[in-house]
Amino acid sequence: MKSIYLDYNATAPLRSEVLELVTQVMAQVGNASSVHGAGRCARKTVEIARAQVADLAGVKPDQVIFTSGATESLNTVLSAYRDKKVLISAIEHPAILDSAPQAATIPVTSDGVVDMTAYQALLISEKPDIVAVMLVNSETGVIQPIQEMAMLARNHQALFLCDAVQAAGRIDLNFNELGVDFMALSAHKISGPQGVGALITRDGVEAPKFMLGGGQEKNCRAGTYNTAGIAGMGLAAELAKKNLSTYDLVKKLRDYMEDYILQKTNKAVIYGQNAPRVGNTMNIGLTGIEAQTQMMALDLDNIAVSSGSACSSGSFKPSHVLTAMGADEQAAKSALRISIGYATTQSDIDTFLESYTKIIERIK
Fold it and tell me: Given 242, 272, 304, which residue is the final one in a domain?
């Protein structure tokens, strides 16, 4: 039986062109910080990738700092604000939540969009030094009004950190138009290799020094360059921008999937359905069957999806994103996240729906 992968928001399948390039670079010797020929060759590979990532984000290459991933990028910025005032949304990734435990929280609406009235009030009452809000939510796909939020933050003398991991390659991304100060990107969410990411910084804003012990990345991120991974991220970024239009077809597949399920049952809830969303993500609750049970049934049919909930110490916890949107604990525990992408076919969706229909039948 063919395996069907519908969990792109966790990690997207590596593109064949990227795998080929990474393999080639790994076979070459050379430390990108060395001054001899082999080192210069490796450094050239890094700088080509830097230009490719910069082009995806709409910035200059010298605004790109390579890291081990978006989690490191986010931690890098917030490490400088652990004794300062931070403002985050209630639906952030744990990389933000755990890096700023002292942060004040902006509530979201039932559609999963930041409550702008509450946000403006918190800017006045909290007087934050930095605001951190993701551009696209990883669980619901809901797009946040970052441009407006960043402008308001600047009016209140606060910097703005944006997690753009789930936006890259799915919607047009322009750092300068968003008006943010820092942006985090991840290679493996755009069909690049795992273990590499980038931090984009605004001109004139210096990134905090997080990794010490070397002069790499303008003294901001020490350590030997992951040349092969960086090369893979660069090519993945170039392909993501070039193939942005493929998400029109992806959205049609997502919408087809949602329409089919909503016609099959009135017990299904699509979280964030009435808000602007990226075209590849569906978060669906099916009251009456916990997501863990649904995932197991789908896995038996060789279909990989995920849940908006996380397993922690053996206990299945409801998604903080969905509860922030007003879902009760039981409803949040019944939600699945289906995320698709460039390699998803109509046949994959039909097979998923056939399997999911059997789950629906269990609660009729």
Answer: 242
DSSP one-letter string for 287-342? TTS-HHHHHHHHHHTTEE-EESSEEETTEEEPPHHHHHTT--HHHHTTEEEEE--T
- Mean pLDDT (the chain) is 94
Q: Report the alpha-carbon distance of residue 233 to residue 185 in Å, rounded.
A: 10
Q: Residue 4, SS3?
A: strand
Q: Which residue, among 2, 3, 10, 4, has the nearest Cα to 191 in the 3D structure?
A: 10
Give Dmax (Cα) for the chain. Answer: 70
Helix (H, G, I), strand (E, B) or coil at 105: strand
Q: Is 311 a catalytic residue?
A: yes
Mark whether 150 and 183 lie in a shared domain.
yes
**Statement: residue 33 has pLDDT above 90:** no
**Rounded to an integer, what distance in angstroms lies between the CA atom of residue 202 and that of residue 63?**
7
Which one-letter amino acid corresponds to residue 248? D
Position 161 scores a pLDDT of: 98
**Over residues 65-88, mean pLDDT:** 97
Question: What is the spatial distance between Cα 51 and Cα 193, in angstroms, rounded to a whole number?
Answer: 17
Please identify which of the residues 41, 162, 220, 311 carries the catalytic annotation: 311
Residue 284's domain spans which residues?
Answer: 4-12+245-362
